[in-house]
Amino acid sequence: MGELRKNPTRWDISTAALVLANATPLVGVFLMHWQVFPLLLLYWLENVIVGVFNVLRMVCADPTDPGGWIGKFFLIPFFCVHYGMFCFVHGIFVFALFGGSQYNATAFHVWGNVLPAIQRTGLGFAALSIASSHGVSFAVNYIHGGEYRHVSLSQLMTQPYTRIMVMHFTILLGGFAMMALHSPVYGLLMLVAVKTGVDVAAHRKERERLGSGWPVMPAEEQPAKIA
Residues 6 or more apart from 181 whose CB is under 8 A from it? Predict the structure, then answer.
């Protein structure tokens, strides 16, 4: 495996898709009068979306390595159970702390609450937008950019937790602040802006950590420099 260099064009495409998806909730804030709960529920749904795409990354990682498939056979189910529990516990906090009285008695029924909550808040369009953004990154960076050729299963096992823990620690603190301020629009806008900034920074670091880039031409094949 040779030295890798970054490809700004691919990074710009995936980053632009990420910023656009993060701006989509503004439609809900301005036109649908979202308060704190729909916004935090949307960001929790992104946890699930990140997990789904990470499973796809694990399936596609270094497909030419026979030994890797043995590791996938054990690690993918383990990740699904472990990450699923992580999302489940996080979902309990979102429903119990921000969902209001209608979810107090059913906060532990996370998976049963999700679809009714999406229908009630009308955030399906925003969830599809965020899913599309992660799909763009998967196609542009992971597949076309060749990340799948040199990423390790151990990297993929831990990568979602690093990104989501930082992002959602920021979001939960912002959510409590917005509840204390009775969810003013400017506060929700600030929450969207902070989440977008944290998300973009994490996206860039993820590309570096997963080795995103095009192979650099070997020195002997590069054209001679003119003095």
Answer: 187
